[in-house]
Amino acid sequence: MSLIFHSDRHVAHRGFLVGYRKDMCGGVLTGLSGIISSPGYPGEYSNNADCSWTVHVSNRTVVSLVFLDFQLENNEGCNFDYVALFDGPTVTHRHMGNYCGSNRPPNTVTTSNQLLVVFKSDFNIGGRGFKAYYYSGECQQVFTAIRGNFTSPHYPNVYPNNINCHWTITLAAGYRVKLFFTSMELEDRNSLTDECDYDSVAVHDGSSESDPLLGRWCGSEEPPSLLSKANKLLVILNTDRNFAYKGFSVSYTGVVPVNVSCTRTEFQIQISQQSLPQLERESVYLGNPSCSAQMTPTGYKILARFVNCGTAGQKRRNITVLVNTLYIDFSDGKQQSVQEYEVQCDAQRKVASVSIVTVEERNRLNELARRAEEASGGSSEEEDSEPHDTSDIVFISICVLAVILMVIAIVWLVLL
Ligand SMILES: [Ca+2]
Ligand SMILES: [Ca+2]
């Protein structure tokens, strides 16, 4: 477009001011993640739009597309206004669907490292349009195994700028998810707002961003261990356009719903069949393998007298409780994996409780104990600080001596 301004020889006025906007859409996107939206979104999209976005991620991964909002003119067959998806860089590649109306298209994953998104509108009737996130495989993962680990992209090298990555943990119904950060190094909080405005990692108690937020962290803050209410947890990493660090690493474990009660003489432990569908009864035992579970029509059951299975008394907050360890052995031919749960009984009040004991927690407790020991025992740090103290004393002594000498000198001058 060109705009011509012409003035003649006399009479001038203030003139004009005009703005312009590129009514642009489409392009080639190569980041680990990004946003694709219709022109003018969330305002109404223009008629006769014809946009093509090609997402091209690294060779080894695939592209996922998640629609956050979707409202287009609706008609059967979706040939007036529509979004079309192709499993490759051109319309000759596999067509994955045409979408219109106001139902969000399903989450889509390519089989190759490229995705083509085409948006077209006809000559009338529009809508709000759409907004979608794309992720490369490195940046979007779903975990279903009982245990797992993941890291920010490129860890332990610096993470990319401008990413929004999602990791979803989805376990079988009944499980809860316990999550630990084993390492954390992101850009620090904004010192003005004291918020994680630049880069942050957030954890949601569920599978979507609208589920309750368990916390948002940045810098080198160490998030506490987190436990989901149900069987799903979502971890999101957001980074801004500059300053990147090493990132984070995380491990998680599925917590089996264990039902524990006790009498004055024994533990009663029940786990529903649904929670451990693939395990032999010998894989679930209290204290030692001779106290393994019995199968009932609904699941696994252990009735264990305190005297039989190595249950021991321990003082906890001035109360003697009976403590033992429940083992659930998930090991298969390939991998050794045994979960440990501490079961407790206050036999006086017949109150029982159970909590998972994880390797990460044990390591963290050991590490804290080691640090505490280092800090209290005659450590080298304290010895280091001594020379400072003595030098301070010497300095103060010299000052005092100088003052005394000055006073003597003044007195001597006055007497003369
Ligand atoms: Ca239309
Ligand atoms: Ca940053």
Automatic annotation (TrEMBL):
The keyword Transmembrane helix applies. Keywords: Disulfide bond, Membrane, Repeat, Transmembrane, Transmembrane helix. It comes from the Eukaryota. The chain crosses the membrane at residues 393-415. The keyword Membrane applies. Residues 25-137, 139-255 form the CUB domain. This is CUB domain-containing protein. It comes from Megalops atlanticus (Tarpon).
